[in-house]
Amino acid sequence: MEKTLNAVVDGSTLERQVSTVLRAVAQTFARAAHRLAERRRIAREIAELHAMTDRDLKDIGIERCDIGAVARGAFEPFESRRNRTRLSGG
């Protein structure tokens, strides 16, 4: 009886461990899929912005050298940078 009980406990422990590992693997794949989708979005946005003329880019307030930052969401308009520098005494 005791051996049978230990086998059940060990079996349920093994099931929990397997479940934990499978959940971790699934989360890893989900994160990788999310990063891949984000990279594709950024590449698509960069391509669209590079296809625009310099005049079109100026109309929306960016320069060609800002395209990468805009696509990654890290763009800070020149006026904001200038004001921040002015406020910090630089």
Automatic annotation (TrEMBL):
Residues 31-67 form the YjiS-like domain. InterPro entries: YjiS-like. It holds the Pfam family YjiS-like. It comes from Caenispirillum salinarum AK4. This is YjiS-like domain-containing protein.
